[in-house]
Specification:
Elements (H helix, E strand, L loop, with lengths): L10 H6 L3 H22 L23 E5 L2 E6 L6 E6 L23 H12 L2 E6 L10 H16 L7 E6 L1 H9 L7 E5 L17 E5 L4 H16 L4 E5 L9 H5 L5 H13 L18 H6 L8 H16 L9 H10 L3
Parallel strand pairs: 3-4, 3-5, 5-6, 6-7, 7-8
Antiparallel strand pairs: 1-2, 2-4
């Protein structure tokens, strides 16, 4: 190997030479910085990573069938080659129409953002979806559970789906309802969302279905009751688990990503209004539950214009509640929910 004395190098080379190991370290650092920059620029809130946005998979479309039976609305859709049946129970003030987009086949449907995304996830995972409206503002737990049981059994037989596993997801009042319905109807597993269930009022047999609690720990009272009910179920030999839904920051395009009909321009303006009026903090987090603030009045007095105020205001309300993470329907944990369902199919 030839060796050159430093004295033979020109002054520029002596002052700027850089040992090879240092060059390698610098190159690695540059690559790491570029990777982190790319990752953060496209980063979603941790709660929403890997979930559908409002545009969804173009191969999955709404084509619901609507029927009025036993005094209530029954709306459903069956994908090609279904592998399971999912019954969805809404919360108080909800209806079956909340789960489906407005269309010629369902002109009264309203497609609330989280409900519709749960249905799209279901269809994408090859679950036939059945939704039923409660008779009153909230679900009742006596005669109504027997009526709904009959509707579900009729619908399954009508569509020749008897051989498929049956699962259920209920939110809030619907979660309480599903916890009771599971004592009368055989589910392979159930998910109770933002609800602890009515386990102190029902007889829990050893064949009670595996139960997943999807809840928002910011609601400390419900969090404690869920912990107690999980212990009760475990002591009965029932498989149980929980998914905790945490708050996350809003971003300028979040509402556009979640709500059909809200474009990026309107979404950014809404974000700016909420920030400027103090509804969200400097980091993008909601300061209070959307239900407890006057953001609707502020929005109505702004120069932001969008169609169908009466519909969109409920859509926006749901997403603000979701970000605050105290009590709201959520599709962000759909992958975990459907993994739970599929892991208990027999």
């Amino acid at each position: 190997m030839l060796k050159h004395s430093n004295k033979s190098l020109k002054p520029w080379h002596r002052s700027h030479k850089c040992p090879v190991p240092v060059l390698i370290v610098l190159l690695i650092l540059i690559i790491v910085v570029l990777m982190l920059s790319f990752h953060n620029n496209g980063k979603q809130p941790s709660s929403s990573i890997g979930v559908m946005t409002q545009s969804s998979d173009p191969l999955v479309q709404f084509h619901p069938t609507i029927e009025f039976r036993n005094g209530t609305d029954v709306i459903w859709q069956i994908p090609d080659s279904p592998k399971a049946v999912l019954f969805l129970a809404h919360g108080c003030n909800g209806q079956a129409v909340n789960f489906w987009d407005r269309s010629p086949s369902c002109p009264d449907c309203v497609g609330l953002p989280e409900e519709r995304l749960i249905v799209l996830h279901s269809l994408n995972r090859k679950f036939a979806v059945l939704t039923i409206s409660s008779a009153g503002k909230c679900w009742s737990f006596g005669k109504e559970s027997l009526i709904v049981k009959g509707i579900i059994q009729w619908w399954i037989e009508k569509n020749k789906l008897e051989k498929l596993p049956l699962v259920a997801l209920g939110a809030s009042s619907g979660g309480y309802f599903v916890s009771v319905l599971a004592t009368n109807l055989r589910f392979s597993s159930v998910t109770l969302m933002i609800a602890e269930g009515l386990f102190h009022k029902i007889d829990i047999m050893k064949d009670y279905p595996p139960t997943l609690f999807v809840h928002m720990p910011k609601d400390q009272a419900r969090k404690q009751r869920i912990a107690e009910n999980m212990e009760i179920l475990r002591n009965k030999g029932i498989d149980v688990a929980e998914v905790k839904c945490m708050e996350f920051p809003l971003s300028p395009y979040f509402l556009a990503d979640r709500i059909p009909g809200v474009d990026k321009n309107i979404s950014a303006k809404l974000f700016g209004l909420l920030r400027d009026k103090g509804f969200i903090n400097v980091n993008g987090y909601m300061r209070n539950d959307g239900r407890a603030t006057n953001w609707k009045k502020v929005l109505s007095e702004s120069n932001i214009i969008f169609p169908d105020w009466d519909i969109f205001v409920h859509h926006i309300q749901e997403e603000l509640n979701l970000a605050f993470a105290y009590h709201e329907m959520t599709s962000l944990q759909s992958e975990q929910i459907f993994n739970w369902f599929e892991s208990h199919m027999t």
